[in-house]
Predict the structure.
Amino acid sequence: MTANRQIVLAQLPGGDHLGPQHFTLNTAEAGTPGEGEVLLKILYVSLDAANRAWMQGATYRSAIEAGDVMAGGALAEVVTSKAAHLAPGDLVFADTGWQEYAVLPARRLAKIPRMEPLTHLLSVYGVAGLTAYHGLLECGAPRAGETVVVSAAAGSVGSIVGQIAKIKGCRVIGIAGGKAKGQLLVDELGFDAVIDYKAENVRKALREAAPNGVDVYFDNTGGDILEAALFNMNTHGRIACCGAVSQYDGAAPPHGPRGVPGLIVTKRLTMRGFIVSDFAEGDAKALKDLQGWVADGSLKVREDVLEGLESLPGALVGLLAGENVGKRMVRVAG
């Protein structure tokens, strides 16, 4: 049998910050697929803030428990197939967990066209790009000339959201941590302004950067940044709620956004939560648009690729601390 190294969640972090000590490296057998199953070799594992949220309880997927192989999506290659629609060498995106091999039912897996670089299949043409596209255009519905604000703007989703908003003719303000990220967003990705939440009062800085108010806010953080954005929204503003990374790691915040119900009513705001699969019927058009924008240079792809299965715990801890610019992933096999 083929050996299969796995990263296991040894203990739940509870209210503590996630650290490498919460994980352990295990070796098991890769397994043999039965009828209707496939054996997958994991190539690249996607790192997402949601990985941490799954440790807190059930969300749109079941919770992760201590002793489980750490959950996560990955780009994988079919090694052995007992399913008619998949053959060895085919690529799929699957919830494989953090391991070198996985045996999964094939009924929910679909072949992905192979392209170079493969990493784009996890970033701009994967969940990150589709989340940015659908979340902004379907939930935020920006119109040319409007002001769009995006938090976690240097991350995998936020960096694409801001660029799509610029393509659609909007003025774009990013919220990110640190001077270097802000400079990159403006100089390389075309944002009009950036607020450094680590060094500035976000509500005040946002009022100065958007003196005519905010029409669309794409929220990746929740917490105080969401509160600051809400109090700068224009009447009939739209908020696309994608994530709440500020509340995933460590103790729960002492309060949530305050004064929100009355604000939503008086400004007639729309807040809409979503996950990318809500808009699966529009993926073909989204991918066509994303590929066109990348080809003509109007959408630049930033990726943060780390090496080796054993680097996954530190990679997630670093992502939660805001280390990355663009989509973070780990290459497990070539």
